[in-house]
Protein 1
Amino acid sequence: MFSTAVLLANTPDQLLPARELMAFTLASHILLVPFGVALPFITLLMHHRGLRRNDPVALLLARRWSAVMAVQFAIGIITGTVLSFEFGLLWPGMMGRWGDVFGLGFGVEAWAFFLEAVLIAIYLYGWRRLKPWTHFWLAVPLPLAALMGAFGIIAANSWMNTPQGFSLDAQGKPIHVDVRQAIFTPIFGPEYWHFVVAMLLTAAYVVAGVYAVGWLRGRRDRYHRLGFTVPFTVAAILTPVQFMLGDSAARAVFHKQPIKFAATELVWKTDTHVPEYMFGTLNSDGTISGGLKIPQLDSILAGFKPSTQVTGLTSVPATDRPTIVQATIAHWAFDIMVTVGSLLILLALWYAWSWWRHRDNPRGRWFYRCAAIAGVACLVTVECGWITTEVGRQPWIVYNHMRVSEAVTDTAAGSLWAMLGIVIAVYVAVFGSFLAVVLKMRTRWRIADEGSAAARAGLPPEADTPYGPRSEPEPAAAGAAPDGGSGHTSGGAS
């Protein structure tokens, strides 16, 4: 703790508020990223099912999910714009020196963002205005645009972790930039696919969790069953895939960022036969308090054999590695991520066993309780993944080339603290509005599903998307109901 205090005393006053401001905005924005990246794919999957099987329930779900997707995208515009300004305002040292090297990733993300906005508008407008299959095929590029945006952001982040594609002149400024190498860094592949599958997994579990809650509340109709089964099946398939991708990403960190790996695993001295600690706290003398010790496992996981040598934190000076506190934070974030991933594999196996034996979802309430919790747990792991990546890289903003303290703005610390307070207030209002809109949409959908003309008359006419499907005619006049014949879907949206 004393060494940590000494290091902090030698940093600019504005460093702490700048980091807190960036941490808050990133932590807030990243909660929306899974839905921006993955919800278009899940929505189109349901849309395709509805068209191929002529299933009105599936089409109703797809339309409603597209409305949520649009509202989420609007909120993402706000939080994403704030982040884009913060890179230049808070870290001018990094952007001024290195922007020409890795800035293309942000450019790719900006073009993807623009394309995604256009495609979402077309998709929303196309309901009941385009031919069904034409409408679907026009929306197919939407998930690809989302993946393109993820490509740009991960390219920039992976470059910060493993910078390459440039030479340095006598003044230490980058020259002779190779764009291809700057984008496709050694850690880009593992980081990108780990990120993409994490987003798909998280969005699928969250969407399924909404309908799991509806099932627990007694809504056992086909609407809720289909709304749960499709996204949960996607999540169950991807869970073991993600576990393997996570293992591959951790091994890439072991080879390309050994000090970050040492921080996440609390390895103090370079050695072989290194044990694995689940949780625990690193002390200033290198000992670990608490946690579960598993002999030799860390070396085995890193190199598939106990004799694998793992680089320790003390292999570099204290100024070139995470502090004791930072290492413990990165370690706990990593272990929480691994623990949740392991539990999700058990949940996926439970689901697969039920389908193999009974060709049906599990019927026990405990399964649906776990499924409802899984979405929240995935959001926690998304936060933990970001913490592991960013905190584990400290004190470098560009690994082994520029420290965070060298990149920070000259703006007075008091102004940055005031800005943090303003941003927190704005974000509370923005996310509160998002929640209010989604709950309002849910209420309108439930009233529509209950088929109560009197209740609907008490509400203003339902607007077109993104506030959900336009008011349906009465079941008797329409000749068909969303559930295929019951007259209404009991319970409505969860």
Note: The chain is about 70% helix and 5% strand.
Protein 2
Amino acid sequence: MLQALHNDALGKLILRLTVAGLLLPHGLTKLLNPGSLTWIGNTLATQGLPTVLAYGVLVGEVVAPLMTLIGWRSRVGALLMVANMLVAIFLVHMGELTAFKDNGAWALELQGFFLFGALALVFLGSGRMAWRPD
């Protein structure tokens, strides 16, 4: 019975589908709502960065999750998601790094999940249940 629970490939598949599948709707929302890209561009501008970098969020939240979901260059896709989350935390959430909600949850719980889940995928790879295992 316990031997059936030793399935690394299935565990990697579940992690890939969860992290990428939950991040993808964030990117699709930004893709369908151009005003959000304008807001991101303005936020970049306040940091002295070019506003064109706002389109990088589409790479980190649409292209990278799709790569990871299907298992094509999953490590690269996961690394792009890590970079995306680091930029998001730096630009928008720095003031919440040490903050907690009333229920005791870390204020950056969701961002932390995406960041560290994607980082785990960088090291684990796609597993064999992928279009192109790495």
Note: The chain has a mean pLDDT of 95.
Protein 3
Amino acid sequence: MPDVKLEIQMLYDRVMVRISPEDGERRSSGGIVIPATAQMAKRLAWGDVFGVGTGVRHVKVGDRVLFNPEDQLEVEVQGTTYLVMRERDLHAVATELTEHGTGLYL
């Protein structure tokens, strides 16, 4: 039987996110390099949405979202690690135009 490729479809309120690569090593405002392994307070991460379930209302594929990566489940697909979470676990979405924004931009 030949290999059949199956498309992944997220269910209900689930979102599949890939953590942005720049969330590893970072620099302080003074230029000091802070390694990704440095112990800090819990840190939220930005990621890109790769799939959404039918019950997801506020994000879409391609959005950039803010979330806590420590509380999520990981899945590996074709060598790339993704996180699967509920939409309610997202803290923010980066968008071009909004009525209720913070006035801060990425």
Note: Residues 27 and 33 are 4 Å apart (CA to CA).
Protein 4
Amino acid sequence: MSTDLNTLRGLAHLARLEFDDTKEQQMLGDLNKILDWVDQLRQLNTDDVEPLVHLSQEINVLRPDEAQNTVSHQAGLSNAPRKDSDYFRVPKVLE
């Protein structure tokens, strides 16, 4: 499977990429190498291979998620440019 310049230019347009002539030829060669490699992978017999659920046997050790107040309400409002008693004042975003 190989790609021609028109296909590469179409893909570049969709991806909003611009290449000069030398980079275009280099990208075309690289893209064809990638497609050839994928074609080689496609030819492999994977009937007896179990699908992977996880790439590693490592298990994350996470701390329990416990809610806690690290900043008081007043401390949070202290640096606000505009506030109204207990609330931040922000510009209106909906019309």
Note: The chain is about 40% helix and 5% strand.
